[in-house]
Amino acid sequence: MYASFKSIGAYIPEQIRTNQWFVDRMDTSNEWITKRTGISERRIASDEENTSDLGVNAAKIAIERSDILVEDIDLVICATISPDYYCMPSTACLIANKLGINNVMALDISAACTGFVYAVQTAKAFIESGMKKNVLIVGAEKLSSIVDYTDRTTCMLFGDGAGAAIISTTEDKDEAILDIQCSADGGLKDLLLTPGVASDEAMFMQMKGNETFKIAVRTLTNDVKDIMAKNKLQNEDIDLFIPHQANYRIIKAVGDALKFEDSQKVVTVAKYGNTSSASIPMAMNDVYESGRLQSGDMMLLDAFGGGLTWGSALIPFAGK
Ligand code: ACO
Q1: What's the CATH superfamily of 1-320?
Q2: Max Cα separation, the chain?
Q3: Is residue 247 flagged as an active site residue?
Q4: Does residue 84 sit in helix, strand or coil?
Q5: Does the annotation mark 50 as catalytic?
Q6: So where are the chain's domains?
Q7: Separation of 209 CA from ligand 1 center, angstroms?
Q8: Catalytic residue among 19, 57, 78, 113, which?
Q9: Does the annotation count 244 as an active-site position?
Q10: Helix (H) and strand (E) counts in the chain
Q11: What is the pLDDT of residues 15-46, one digit of tens each?
């Protein structure tokens, strides 16, 4: 039995926060933000919307676009670093409950911006072991709740949003998720962390941006070279390169080092900013809705984030 990637959906919060919002509040400029990050605007969830609500909205679309029913889902995974509640209950439990999915295993994954790739890997393992048949995976973030809006070096990077997918069993090897590799190095935890606990000011995210930038470019590039070589694939075998959307300069540096054509690269960072675990599924949803992602297309995912964590995946799109 193989695992196949059956559908994608996303929820993009309504409120747009442009660079001008930051210019009005701190010592920065539209030119600096655009030039250094490629970001023009990001979305911000409303006060009434929690991470689980964003995730539920994305999940409903992913379920509707798949050929399964809500009651067929036997595992719910949510990747997030901005859960509704710290410690418990997990955001996956809340999402399952709000969708009316009862009596199934539900768990969160904390792998920062690599969260969605970790979630696909986990779903694949459960399916290939025969333990589960239809897994709902969600990457959902209300990062505006953990961003320090007095820190001009990080706050303009992040936005809110959610993406979701259905991973199901298949006997068709052509539809099967080809390969995923996920890694971590806790020795580099200090580059990107929330040092405190809830209700403490130190719960806000802190990042050593420049150091993280350099490690991100090197790690993302090497990880892709590794997974491509392992699977004996060439660039022309990849239809869409969908990297984590942290910074346009990182995407460009990695894309150039790997010699991908612009037509293969998916870039949404300008309009959504960095939405951590939601960034890859939101980008995937964008190309799906615009018709660029077609059934059978080979997607290459590449992510990097706090932990540090990183991962790559080779996934044929098995949706309609
Ligand atoms: N406006 C104006 N100037 C600024 C701003 C700002 N908002 N922020 C920083 N600067 C200044 C700095 O003070 C510095 O000034 P100095 O040269 O006088 O000291 C100068 O700009 C350059 O600062 P750097 O930090 O070196 O800028 P850099 O080019 O590295 O860009 C950025 C910063 C955008 C944060 C970049 O390093 C980055 O994107 N890092 C990686 C992010 C990432 O991939 N994170 C992992 C995933 S996120 C997750 O897991 C949740």
Answers
A1: Thiolase/Chalcone synthase (3.40.47.10)
A2: 57
A3: no
A4: coil
A5: no
A6: 1-320
A7: 5
A8: 113
A9: yes
A10: 9, 13
A11: 999 999 999 999 999 999 999 999 999 999 99
